[in-house]
Design a protein that fits this description.
This protein has helices spanning 22-38, 43-76; strands at 7-10, 17-19. With 77 residues, it is mostly helical. It has one domain (20-76): Helix Hairpins, CATH 1.10.287.1040. It has a two-stranded antiparallel sheet. Strand 1 (7-10) and strand 2 form a beta hairpin. The radius of gyration is 15 Å and the shape is elongated. The model is unreliable at 5-12 (pLDDT under 50).
């Protein structure tokens, strides 16, 4: 099965809990990529990891967009 990191509360638009921070999400995503790149996983496990990876990409992207907006607001003040 897939290994998940320490997780926080669930969000309404996801199937499960999300990582606490961007760093945790990125770290887990990096581990998933490495596992998938090895190419030695059973198909079902690879599909599960791919799905989890997509969730993490979305989470990281959202957090980066929020950080960028904060920086823009600070720069405009």
């Amino acid at each position: 099965m897939t290994k998940k990191k320490a997780l926080s509360s669930e969000t309404p638009d996801s199937e499960g809990p999300q990582p606490v921070s961007f760093e945790d999400a990125y770290r887990e995503l990096s581990e998933i990529v490495a596992q998938l790149e090895r190419g030695d996983l059973p198909l079902e496990q690879a599909l599960e990891l791919h799905t989890r990876g997509q969730e993490l990409v979305k989470l990281c992207s959202t957090q980066l967009e929020q950080a960028e907006l904060k920086v823009r607001r600070l720069d405009s003040e």
